[in-house]
Write a structure and sequence with these properties.
The chain is of the alpha+beta class and about 400 residues long. About 15% of the residues lie in helices and about 35% in strands. The radius of gyration is 23 Å and the shape is flat. A hairpin with a 4-residue loop joins strand 22 and strand 23 (about 375-385). It folds into four domains: about 5-135, Thrombin, subunit H (Beta Barrel); about 145-225, Phage tail protein beta-alpha-beta fold; about 235-250 and about 315-390; about 260-310.
């Protein structure tokens, strides 16, 4: 099978005025016009690497990164070359968009949307030059803004995320997908903190997900949405479903916590523990403070929720690698459709005899990475065991079985 066809486009005309944008929305500093046009530079692409997600379940999502190497023998990507068709627009903060198609270009699937932070030129010999465009997703914008003496009314977590994004010192724009939160946040006043840190504290207070999606949207999911459901795809080594190159099967103590201690702003510390887990794994404490929840009772529920997730050791799959060059078109599309937070099923058939003959587990995608060259198109996933988040819900064949699933809140 042919690998998917990748496309890279860059918005070299970066000085178009954009309302409510911190960089391009300053009066008297940008030109009036429509949307910034994207120029297709695919013919010069030598390699692409993309990394988005988090390291493990308890971590917040990091800023997504992308690096694109372009052939620069014609000096098109050299900003000091006034003859370049892209001069003077080769500089930081221009848009970059990476996507791929499996049907010849009728439909493209997003892999990365972000902003160039560095343009690095290299000259390995007298005959060749390369331009490395290094980019970050929209988290980079948020990490470079701060709230200043901001005040917010009590509301659900999702609405608070939207209110922070709309703050006069943030002005994030319309590229967002915000769910209504389950938890109620308290009123906040005099808040002067880094914007991304505040948003990630809302994520922790909700026990939801906050990340930049592959199509460039600031995405917030409530904790009920993050509860695992039917797997979105199945990866198997037995010739069925989506084949993979390799996977690790890990049994460690990195995420065992049998004492959970949580404190909200102006609240009392809520501590829960599991003595049976402590007898097996020693005392392992998870602490969080400064949460935005509106009541101690909800913080207590959150502590029990986290204790239920992490008091026991669970074997998990991790570091799953798939090769899109050898996949069928249907499997290629399924791989390209995956997003962080998706649930996937992994099947492993170990060598030798034993019972069960095949090991099966539902996993949550924590991070997605791509490595792409003219001859390589591979994707790697970091995973967390979905069973640790198997909370009871009605009318669900996978997580609606009495006496097998934990209660959420």
């Amino acid at each position: 099978m042919a690998q998917p066809t990748v496309r890279v486009r860059i918005g070299f005309t970066q000085n178009t005025f954009t309302l409510d944008d911190l960089v391009r929305g300053v009066l008297d500093s940008a030109e009036l016009g429509g949307a910034t046009p994207l120029t297709d530079v695919t013919s010069d692409v030598q390699s692409i690497s993309i990394s988005r997600g988090r390291s493990r379940d308890l971590d917040t999502f990091r800023t997504g990164n992308c690096s694109v190497r372009l052939l620069n023998n014609a000096r098109k990507y050299e900003n000091t070359n006034t003859s370049s068709p892209y001069s003077p627009g080769i500089e930081p903060m221009i848009a970059i968009h990476v996507d791929a198609t499996t049907d010849g270009g009728s439909n493209y699937k997003d892999l990365f949307v972000g902003f160039v932070t560095d343009v690095n030129l290299s000259y390995p010999d007298k005959s060749n030059s390369f331009a490395d465009f290094v980019a970050s997703d929209g988290f980079m914008k948020l990490a470079n803004t701060s709230l200043i003496n901001a005040s917010f009314s009590s509301t659900d977590s999702g609405t608070l995320v939207s209110n922070v994004l709309d703050n006069a010192n943030v002005k994030f724009g319309a590229d967002r997908d915000i769910e209504t939160g389950i938890s109620t946040m308290q009123s906040l006043s005099g808040l002067s903190e880094n914007t991304l840190s505040v948003l990630q504290n809302i994520e922790r207070s909700e026990n939801g997900l906050l990340f930049m999606s592959k199509d460039g949207k600031l995405t917030f999911k409530s904790r009920h949405t993050t509860f695992p459901s039917t797997p979105d795809a199945t990866f198997s080594d037995d010739g069925s479903d989506i084949p993979y190159l390799r996977v690790d099967y890990i049994n460690d103590d990195n995420e065992i916590f049998n004492v959970v201690s949580l404190t909200r702003i102006s609240g009392s510390t809520q501590t829960v523990q599991d003595t049976a887990s402590q007898g097996k794994y020693l005392i392992r404490t998870l602490s969080r403070s400064g949460l935005y929840n509106s009541s101690d009772s909800e913080v207590q529920d959150a502590a029990n929720f986290l204790l239920g997730k992490f008091k026991d050791a669970l074997i998990r799959f991790d570091n799953l690698v798939v090769d899109l060059t050898e996949a069928t078109t249907g499997n290629q599309n399924s791989i390209l459709d995956r997003e962080v937070g998706d649930v996937v099923k992994v099947e492993l058939t170990p060598p030798g005899s034993g019972s069960p003959a095949q090991i099966t587990s539902n996993e949550i995608i924590d991070s997605i990475s791509y490595n792409i060259t003219p001859d390589i198109f591979s994707c790697s996933y970091k995973l967390s065991n979905a069973d640790v988040q198997a909370f009871m819900r009605l009318d669900n064949t996978l997580f609606g079985v009495l006496d097998t699933d934990k209660l959420g809140y």
